[in-house]
Automatic annotation (TrEMBL):
Cited PANTHER family: NAD P H OXIDOREDUCTASE-RELATED (PTHR10204), NAD(P)H DEHYDROGENASE [QUINONE] 1 ISOFORM 1 (PTHR10204:SF34)
Organism: Dyadobacter sediminis
Family note: Belongs to the NAD(P)H dehydrogenase (quinone) family.
Keywords: Oxidoreductase
Keyword check for ATP-binding: no
Molecular functions (GO terms): NAD(P)H dehydrogenase (quinone) activity
Gene3D superfamilies, alphabetized: 3.40.50.360
Protein name: NAD(P)H-dependent oxidoreductase
Amino acid sequence: MNVLVVLAHPRSESLSHGLCKQIVKILQPFHTVTIHDLYRDSFDPILKENELLDINYFSDDILPYCHALQAADCLIIIHPNWWGAPPAILKGWIDRVIRLNVGYGFNDNGEGDPVKLLKLRYFFVFNTSNTNTEREMAVFHDPLENIWRHCIANFLGVEHFTRSMFSIVVSSTCTERQAWIDTCCQLVKDRLLIP
C-alpha cells in the first residue's frame, strides 16, 4: 500500500513531528511511505492564477505533490489546530494539490456531485491543540471535524476516515505525549491491519 504522510508544523521538536516520526516508523516495514513535511520543503501555499483558471495547468513545483496524492491508497495528515483551522501552508496544499482533475472531477459543468478520482481508501487526520476538548466542542463546535470529514474526506469519496485531536499540548507531560503517540500508532495499525 502507498501511504502519503503530510506534516504541517514549523517546529521540528513539536508533538506533530513526534507523531509523524513514530507513525512512519510503524508503517515503513509494511508499506511504501512518502513524507511531505511542508515547512521543511518550503512548500509554496499560494494558488497561482494559471492553476485556478486552467485545470490542466500545473506549476512545476506542485507536480510531485499531485503525483504523490494520486498514488496514495492512504493519506495521513498531521497538523496543529490554529484558530480552528489548519496552518496556512496546509490550506495552500489543499488548494493547490487536492484540486479539480487530481482529487476529484465532475461529469457536468461542476454544479453536480463530485466524481472520485483518487484511489484513497484510508484517510487519517491527527491534530494537536491547546484548547480543551469540552471548550472545543461547546464553543467552537470542532471546525476541523467539519473541514476534514465533511468538506474533504466525504467530497473525495474516501471509505475510511479517522480523526483524533490531542490536547492540551502546551501543559502536557512527556507521559501524556507518549500516550498520544501510542494512541495514534495503534489507530493506524488497527485500521491498516498491521501486526
